[in-house]
């Protein structure tokens, strides 16, 4: 690892489709095989034109609106500038971007992140708590009901309990020499800053983010799956720059992911006794490749904003 400076590439944590189109959140800790060939056949979710014109169809549509415009639709539960659709692209439909159709049918499931068997509602609540740095909606409330209905509908016809091709971010091997923050900064400046800003601040139209912030107070917190460099590298390799996914090399995806995640962001809400060191030992030491609690350029990361 080497030192860094200042800028990053587009984690599109992508541009949200607007409220009348839709998407969802990080599928961290999902085991994934190597990336499928481009010609691989993926599960095809239903089309919007197939939605019934009844109460169920309306609930699905509300879930889709929540998914793509989360902050405006559920402002009391979102503490940053992200929406579900920033990590789950194409309104939660895109294969190899943690699509909802690949997640819904795999729950209930044990997750090491909280060391318990999670329902799908639990999983979505975690997205609000970590990726959107907010407050989890009630499991039996209207927000979770709508997002669950949307996920259920996208999974129409999918087999239950079977890991479908494309359900996660395809794993990208770490460079033999490790990641390089200096190279990551250069890649960010050339490929990502145009959308996400020179300082990772994202880009707004009025009060709404059209490109999400990648670090800083308005980004995901240190408990989100995307803070793992290996997870971010997989997302970037597959889908970034937006519209040109697959154009970065594996090494460049790692370098820019490391650069992005070498910046401060909101604190992990699981902070143990006010201690970054204790929190790292409990939650981050064995959670992929990450910089929480590590010192970069003389500053310990993880203190929060």
Total count of strands: 6
Number of helices: 10
Structural class: mainly alpha
The order of strands across the largest sheet is 1-2
The helix-strand sequence is HHHHEEHHHEEHHHEE
Principal-axes geometry comes out as: globular
Instruction: Report low-confidence residues grouped into runs of 5 or more.
Output: 1-39
Radius of gyration: 18 Å
Helix content: 25-40%
- Mean pLDDT comes to 89
First-last Cα distance: 24 Å
Strand content: 5-15%
Largest sheet: 2 strands, antiparallel
Characterise the protein shown here.
The chain has 305 residues and is mainly alpha-helical. The protein contains 10 helices and 6 strands. The strands form 3 sheets. A two-stranded antiparallel sheet has the order 1-2. α7 (181-196) packs across α9 (250-260) and α8 (229-239) packs across α9. The protein starts with 54 loop residues before the first helix and ends in a 5-residue tail after the last strand.
């Amino acid at each position: 690892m080497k030192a860094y400076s200042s800028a990053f590439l587009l984690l599109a944590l992508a541009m949200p489709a607007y409220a009348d189109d839709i998407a969802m959140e990080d599928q961290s800790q999902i085991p994934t095989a190597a990336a499928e060939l481009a010609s691989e056949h993926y599960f095809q979710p239903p089309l919007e034109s197939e939605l019934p014109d009844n109460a169920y169809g309306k609930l699905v549509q509300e879930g889709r609106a929540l998914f793509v415009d989360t902050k405006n639709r559920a402002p009391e539960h979102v503490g940053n500038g992200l929406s579900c659709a920033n990590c789950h692209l194409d309104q939660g439909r895109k294969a190899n971007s943690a699509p909802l159709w690949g997640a819904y049918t795999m729950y209930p499931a044990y997750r090491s992140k909280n060391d318990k068997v999670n329902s799908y509602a639990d999983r979505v609540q975690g997205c609000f708590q970590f990726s959107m740095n907010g407050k989890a909606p009630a499991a039996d409330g209207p927000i979770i009901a709508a997002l669950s209905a949307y996920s259920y509908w996208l999974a129409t016809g999918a087999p239950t309990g079977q890991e479908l091709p494309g359900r996660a971010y395809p794993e990208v091997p770490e460079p033999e020499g490790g990641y390089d923050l200096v190279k990551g900064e250069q890649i960010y400046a050339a490929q990502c800053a145009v959308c996400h800003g020179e300082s990772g601040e994202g880009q707004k139209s009025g009060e709404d983010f059209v490109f999400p912030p990648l670090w800083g107070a308005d980004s995901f917190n240190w408990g989100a799956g995307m803070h793992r460099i290996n997870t971010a590298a997989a997302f970037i390799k597959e889908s970034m720059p937006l519209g040109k996914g697959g154009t970065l090399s594996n090494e460049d995806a790692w370098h820019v992911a490391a650069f992005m995640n070498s910046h401060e962001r909101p604190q992990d809400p699981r902070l143990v006794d006010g201690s970054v060191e204790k929190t790292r030992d409990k939650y981050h030491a064995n959670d992929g490749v990450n910089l929480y609690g590590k010192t970069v350029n003389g500053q310990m990361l993880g203190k929060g904003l």
